[in-house]
Amino acid sequence: MTHTGSFRGLTLIEVLVTTVLIGLVAAVLLHSFGDAQHERAAFRALLRELRDLDARARLVARSGEAVELSHDGTSGRVVIRGSGGGSIIAERELPPGATCSIRLKGARSARAIAFDPIGASRDYTLDVEFGQQRARLDVAGLTGWVTQSEPSP
Description:
By secondary structure, the chain is α+β, with helices and mostly antiparallel strands. The protein contains 1 helix and 8 strands, in the order αββββββββ.
């Protein structure tokens, strides 16, 4: 059997260089995928903690103490405090790069959400943004039921 054309195989160096390049590309992709998953997990934890703050405010209000849930835009904290700017009952520091705003239903923004002695409040919305993640938490004031949705542009 004779070969009429010339056949040239790959050298060991060519195979090694190709393998190294594929490995580098895979490492970069896996690293960026891991960062995105970490960011999503941190965002889900932040949303869970904001829901927990609402539930805690309702429980404290039911115990007879007038409370407010507020967001301090300058320090980046969401705070439960006694009504009228009283002592801090609980707080959550937002991670760097995260933003949060509170809006009453039918209003542009609110400084604080007040809870009455049965733990009810007005319906309100928390708009949360962290990195590439955005969510809107709609809170039913009477029950504290939270629904999550994508914010409208």
